[in-house]
TrEMBL record, chain A:
Main localization, broad class: membrane
Domain of life: Bacteria
Membrane topology: Multi-pass membrane protein
Localisation per UniProt entry: Cell membrane
Record domain ABC3 transporter permease C-terminal: where: 314-430
Transmembrane segments: 21-41, 310-335, 355-388, 400-420
Taxonomic lineage from the root: Bacteria, Pseudomonadati, Pseudomonadota, Gammaproteobacteria, Lysobacterales
Protein name from the UniProt record: ABC transporter permease
Organism this protein belongs to: Frateuria flava
UniProtKB/TrEMBL annotation, chain B:
UniProt keyword Transport present: yes
InterPro entries: AAA+_ATPase (IPR003593), ABC_transporter-like_ATP-bd (IPR003439), ABC_transporter-like_CS (IPR017871), ABC_transpr_LolD-like (IPR015854), MacB-like_ATP-bd (IPR017911), P-loop_NTPase (IPR027417)
Cited Pfam families: ABC_tran
Name by which UniProt lists this protein: ABC transporter ATP-binding protein
CDD domains reported for this sequence: ABC_MJ0796_LolCDE_FtsE
Lineage, broadest ranks: Bacteria, Pseudomonadati, Pseudomonadota, Gammaproteobacteria, Lysobacterales
All residue ranges annotated as the ABC transporter domain in the record: 2-237
Keywords recorded for this protein, A-Z: ATP-binding, Nucleotide-binding, Transport
Native organism: Frateuria flava
Length: 437, 237
């Protein structure tokens, strides 16, 4: 019977091509506007590491005090001193520190010019903590951290550029006049937003191409290529050593904690550490620490750009207006068929039959609107860059999930919008209709 | 087959109550051909729509084929309409967007009948009214008489126990009206129960029994002076 309703719906839509086109366009445009903005929103609001985002934490420590901190919040990074203290305490099953580096890579082929490669100085736990996929080799181990060995993990793109994509483990890369042995090559990996470095990036950037041991980088004098915040009361120092020992923050810390007990234990450790620093006279205020997991960290850092939320809200509002318009058109279309409804009721159609027939027809409008919406969404992807930052706009894409979602939203919304017109249609009194005929 | 006792139908507004039927009593036996007559506004069509379960009533009792229908919900009323009642309307009431075949199929669809049986019944019904060759035509391509025959085929296809006809020849010329009336008589001879509302005393005379309605009540024709006056006018004409 449902197939019959679909046939009736299709025939009915064909009979009024102009009205049908208006409804389909209304739904299609509304769906497309919503889906284009949603495509951006889902990228910027998605969990970049869902399998363990609740086990990865950013420890924060207030080294500025209530006078200089921002709304009572500790800085978003650590000083070198505190970073090293947390690493040496080893209170988490895994922990890493990182800061951004930018090194000049010298190509091995003669005649090629050096180029800049961006990445991170970090610790060995970085790779297993963030589940970095390797194409060849692996990251260095804890001994490599301690030995301050000149090793490097390179990205797939850099490996392609330097070695033509071959297994380059054990080969040498020269960066800033320093030869590094390649320990591993990572596969395509660029979590969006880049949760592990919200301090120095806005969360959206090209994949990092180099990873070098933190201790080696500091010892080699490789300075941060990212942010360095000394705050209003921070002591910068006049030379590198005093900068390292000073109160400027530039190191992003991460710890992996497997359960609530470990989280509580680590928070206590942080508070204890801050208390000891107060007792030692470095901090003149009560311990002020934070321990945020990935989702909390992204929320706190405002990883979702405000323009994305606004655009989505505007698009949904526009879609609702389109649906209201569709309700009006469906109402006109359905009530014009009151005589037919009267006849059908007289011949044995219950109100349920009328509901099913007209909702099926509305569903077909929704399906056609959804199909148009998918087409317009595809076109709209080219125009995203006009509204959003290019590095965010390029992440949005039309995939099967979005196609399915567009169709589902269009059908569901249209059927929902059709409830009132259908209800009105089902209330048609057959006796009155037949008498008036 | 159809029994109404002390039935009333009241249309209420904030300021006035209008009785369309008042203390209405009728009993139509199975196999009867009853003509219902009466002046305009007397309640004939209201009686027919209530008899056909297209409208509810305000008071009294109505038994259709032994079932008291006043407490039935919409689904049950629709099911009875679909399975036991056939309608023939003055305005034919075919669905203009469906061809003849599909129009006749409408009530059978709601019965959940299988396609092969539907086809058999539709073609039998169309053969019976002499329109099998017009199965693919649309109502607009048929004459008024042909459209009414399609409507009769639609009513017959479901093999209803009761056929309700509201001025079935009202929109037809004399020749077409005669053809439709002969068809109804033939259907009656085959055992159908028919209740026909008509203004036309000539048609009414062809039924087995006449019921006259005045001011929403069935009246005894022998005691109703207005009936005699009306008949006299017809005779004079």
């Amino acid at each position: 019977m449902f197939l019959h309703y679909l046939q009736l719906g299709l025939a009915s839509l064909r009979r009024n091509p102009l009205l049908t086109a208006l409804m389909v366009m209304s739904i299609g445009v509304g769906v497309a506007a919503s889906m284009v903005t949603y495509a951006v929103f889902r990228v910027v609001s998605s969990d970049p590491i869902p399998q363990k985002s609740s086990r990865l934490f950013v420890p924060q420590l207030d080294n500025r005090g209530p006078r200089y901190n921002r709304n009572g919040e500790p800085p978003d990074a650590l000083t070198y001193t505190d970073a090293m203290a947390l690493m040496q305490a080893r209170r988490a099953p895994r922990q890493t520190m990182l800061y951004q580096v930018g090194l000049s890579v010298m190509p091995q082929q003669p005649g090629r010019l050096p180029f800049k490669a961006l990445g991170y100085a970090t610790f060995a736990d970085f790779f297993p903590m963030f589940e970095v996929p390797f194409l060849y080799g692996r990251g260095w181990n804890a001994d490599g951290d301690d030995a301050r060995a000149p090793v490097v993990v390179i990205g797939r793109q850099l490996n392609q550029r330097l070695f033509g994509g071959a297994d380059s483990v054990g080969r040498t890369v020269v960066m800033d006049d320093q030869a590094y042995r390649v320990a591993g090559v990572i596969d395509d990996w660029n979590p969006q937003p880049r949760f592990f470095d919200m301090f120095s990036s806005n969360g959206y950037a090209d994949p990092p191409q180099i990873f070098v041991p933190f201790n080696f980088a500091v010892a080699a004098g490789i300075e941060t290529y990212g942010n360095n915040s000394c705050g209003s009361g921070g002591k910068r120092g006049s030379d590198r050593e005093s900068w390292l020992r000073g109160e400027c923050v530039w190191v992003s810390p991460w710890v992996e904690l497997d359960d609530a007990a470990q989280v509580q234990g680590y928070r206590s450790f942080l508070e204890g550490y801050a208390r000891r620093l107060r007792e030692a006279g470095r901090f003149g205020w009560a311990p002020n620490v934070r321990l945020r997991d990935v989702r909390q960290w992204l929320d706190y850092r405002g990883a979702v750009p405000p323009e994305s939320r606004i655009a989505l809200a505007v698009a949904i509002g526009f879609f609702i207006i389109c649906l209201v318009n569709t309700i009006g058109l469906l109402l006109a279309k359905f009530l014009r068929r009151a005589p037919e409804i009267g006849v059908r009721r007289a011949l044995g159609a219950s109100r349920r039959h009328i509901y099913l027939q007209f909702l099926a027809e509305a569903g077909m409008v929704g399906l056609a609107g959804g199909a148009l919406g998918v087409l317009l969404t595809g076109v709209g992807m080219f125009g995203i860059g006009l509204v959003f930052q290019p590095q965010i706009a390029c992440l949005a894409h039309l995939d099967l999930r979005l196609v399915a979602l567009s169709l589902a939203v269009a059908i569901a919304a249209t059927v929902l919008a059709a409830f009132y017109p259908t209800w009105r249609a089902a209330q048609v009194q057959p006796a009155w209709q037949l008498k008036s005929n | 087959m159809l029994k109404m006792t002390h039935l009333s139908k009241v249309y209420r507004t904030e300021v006035v109550e209008t009785y369309a039927l008042r203390d209405f009593n009728i009993n139509v036996k199975e196999g009867e051909f009853v003509a219902v007559t009466g002046p305009s506004g007397s309640g004939k069509t209201t009686f027919l729509t209530i008899a056909g379960l297209l409208e509810t009533f305000t008071g009294g009792h109505y038994h259709l084929d032994g079932i008291e229908v006043s407490q039935l919900n919409d689904n049950a009323r629709s099911k009875i309409r679909n399975e036991k009642i056939g309608f023939i309307f003055q305005a034919f009431n075919l669905i203009p967007d469906l061809n003849v075949y599909d129009n006749v199929e409408v009530p059978l669809r709601y019965r959940g009948m299988k396609a092969a049986e539907r086809k058999q019944r539709i073609m039998d019904a169309l053969e019976r009214v002499g329109l099998a060759s017009r199965a693919k035509h649309y109502p607009a391509e048929l004459s008024g008489g042909q459209q009414q025959r399609v409507a009769i085929a639609r009513a017959l296809a479901g093999s209803p126990r009761l056929l309700l006809a509201d001025e079935p020849t009202g929109n037809l010329d004399t020749q077409m009206a005669r053809g439709v009336m002969e068809l109804l008589e033939e259907i009656h001879r085959e055992g159908a129960t028919i209740v026909m509302v008509t203004h036309d005393p000539e048609l009414a005379a062809r039924a087995q029994r006449n019921v006259h309605i005045i001011d929403g009540q069935v009246v005894d024709l022998a005691e109703e002076p207005r009936f005699h006056a009306h008949n006299a006018r017809v005779a004079d004409a």
